[in-house]
Design brief:
Blueprint lengths: L7 H22 L6 H14 L3 E5 L2 H11 L7 E4 L6 H8 L3 E4 L11 H7 L4 E5 L10 H11 L4 E3 L7 E2 L2 E2 L6 E5 L13 E5 L2 H11 L3 E3 L2 E2 L10 H11 L2 H19 L13 E2 L5 E4 L3 H10 L29 H9 E4 L7 H17 L1
Parallel strand pairs: 2-3, 2-4, 5-8
Antiparallel strand pairs: 1-9, 6-7, 6-12, 8-9, 10-11, 13-14
Helix pairs in contact: 1-8, 2-8, 3-4, 3-7, 9-12, 10-12
The structure holds pyridoxal-5'-phosphate.
């Protein structure tokens, strides 16, 4: 049997009865938009992540866009961010009307490099948008210090990092806002799209709530141009069931990662680095190797799925050519794009399967 990057059927089998009951409950009430499950989920996730407020929206991409607008980003502004992430991070900046300005990454953690942020900040910088990539926090202390010095807000894209902790602080405790995604394959994934903005700032929370509902201030009164972006009540009901499993699932990911670290040491690939102080929740277990295609082929022969996140950095994508960057501008992001390979680490794989993947990787050593 093959070992895939995600196994949502196996995940569903663990909780199918509870999900069915939750869905039935929503149909009994028929309050499909912003009902009681959305409100409860906002509180539960805010608490889990150490934030005061949660504002649920229709996707992780919308969460970033709305958070940026809520902290004051608009046309003419620059937002300093990473070129090595899912496209949504950059796309949100452009949708908010601003211009992404890239800072290169740290080659060990793949997260944005604070010294590069320093160089990228200009008088037009209106926010910093780092990503907690693959499930571990960026260097938040250094980033928050730069932000304080320059007086700009920080929105963290935490789409891959629900449950991550850095130096004893949960992700919702750090930054002006943090955004989450409930895309089905994320550590907490719905049965459709969804996202959330977390913040400790009452004004940002209020702005986000207004923005997700067409910019409404009071009933049929609109103080600003907004979005139509709510989390469905059905998704919220389902996510609450899954939320009760999140700690166990994240622990299983960490355990799988520990097994890989042990099995792969001294092997042909470079294991991921967990930055000291970080509690990594391994949304992805991402190794690096200059012989990626050979390693991938060996895995494929052994019936093991793998994936490349991300095969090209954003500054060389056609859609963002207008930003004026070129190949060579961000060498670490470019090298990472050539060398990274993610292997199955999800909670539904068994110890035996982890061993099989590690053996297939060790076998690749003979070839490379
Ligand atoms: C998944 C993801 C998003 C976007 O989330 P959607 O819910 O798919 O809109 C944004 N940023 C990162 C880093 C992601 O991994």
């Amino acid at each position: 049997m093959s070992i895939q990057m995600a196994d949502l059927r196996a995940q569903h089998r663990e909780i199918d009865e509870e999900i069915q009951a939750a869905v039935d409950g929503v149909f009994e009430r028929c309050q499909f938009i912003l009902g009681e499950n959305v409100v409860a989920l906002e509180h539960e996730i805010a608490r889990l992540c150490g934030a005061k407020y949660g504002v649920a929206v229709a996707s992780g991409t919308d969460a970033i866009t709305i958070a940026l607008v809520a902290v004051g980003v608009g046309p003419g502004d620059e937002v300093v961010t990473t070129p090595f992430t899912f496209v949504a991070t950059t796309e949100s900046v452009v949708i908010a009307g601003a211009r992404p300005v890239y800072a290169d990454i740290d080659p060990e953690t793949f997260n944005i490099d604070p010294t590069a942020i320093h160089r990228a900040v200009t008088p037009k910088t209106r926010a910093i948008l780092p990503v907690h990539l693959y499930g571990q926090c960026a260097n938040t202390e250094a980033i928050m210090a730069i932000a304080a010095e320059r007086g700009v807000p920080v929105v963290f894209d935490g789409a891959q990092a629900i449950g991550a902790v850095r130096n004893g602080r949960k992700i919702g405790e750090i930054g002006d806002a943090v955004t989450l995604s409930f895309f089905p394959t994320k550590n907490l994934g719905g049965c459709g799209d969804g996202g959330m903005i977390l913040t400790n700032d009452e004004a940002i929370a209020a702005a986000a709530k207004s923005l997700r509902f067409h910019g409404m201030s009071e009933s049929y009164t609109y103080g600003r141009v907004g979005f139509c972006s709510r989390l469905d009540e059905l998704q919220a009901a389902i996510l609450r069931v899954k939320l009760s499993k999140l700690d166990i699932w994240n622990e299983r990911r960490r355990r799988n990662a520990a097994l890989y670290n042990e099995a792969l040491s001294g092997g042909p690939v470079h294991s991921p680095v967990e930055d000291p102080g970080n509690h990594h929740i391994y949304h992805q277990y991402t190794v690096r190797t200059p012989n990626r295609e050979t390693v991938r082929a060996a895995l494929k022969d052994a019936g093991v799925g793998s994936a490349v996140y991300y095969p090209a950095p954003l500054h060389v994508q056609e859609a963002y050519a207008f930003l004026g960057y070129k190949e060579g501008d961000f060498p670490e992001a470019e090298r990472a794009s050539r060398e990274v390979l993610s292997i199955p680490v999800h909670p539904q794989i068994s110890d035996d399967q982890v061993k099989r993947v590690a053996e297939a990787l060790a076998g690749a050593k003979k070839i490379v």
